[in-house]
Amino acid sequence: MTKTITTWVIGQQFSSKLDNNVIQIDGTRENGFGPKALLLSGLAGCSGIDVVDILKKMRVEFSDFSIEVEADQTEEHPRVYKDIHITYKVHTDAANLDKVKKAVDLSLEKYCGVSAMLKKNSDVLYKVEII
């Protein structure tokens, strides 16, 4: 079981704790992540962990790896994400493109629980950039 404890600080600011780790959440995004942005970061982290593990198992060498996630919200409340666009930027040999795509597909379709949850309401689309 996962348990977080989130405590109001001031205004729209909260401090959320998981074990000995603390993050700041802020509805104004001045002193922490907004809750929905945190969800996108969670998606990137979840998928990124999978992709790194899969690429290592495939013996694909890479140096830099970053993930950009963008999403538009609906106009009506509750304002949920419509389409979620993920860009995986991997510094590796161009010959590894198919392996990177396979790793991403496995993450988003099979392993990443955050992706599975978000796909129930939103389209999750991606592209890979080899640098």
In a nutshell, what does this entry contain?
This protein has helices at residues 35-57, 97-111, 113-118, and strands spanning 5-10, 13-18, 21-26, 65-73, 81-90, 123-130.
How would you characterize this protein structure?
By secondary structure, the chain is α+β, with helices and mostly antiparallel strands. The chain folds into two domains: 1-33; 42-130, GMP Synthetase, Chain A, domain 3 (2-Layer Sandwich), CATH 3.30.300.20. The protein is built from three helices and six strands, in the order βββαββααβ. It has helices at residues 35-57, 97-111, 113-118, and strands at 5-10, 13-18, 21-26, 65-73, 81-90, 123-130. The strands form two sheets. The protein has a three-stranded antiparallel sheet, with no helix packed on it. A three-stranded mixed sheet has the order 4-5-6, with helices on one face. Helix 1 (35-57) crosses helix 2 (97-111). The longest helix is centred in the middle third of the chain and has 23 residues, at 35-57. The model has no long low-confidence stretch (mean pLDDT 96).
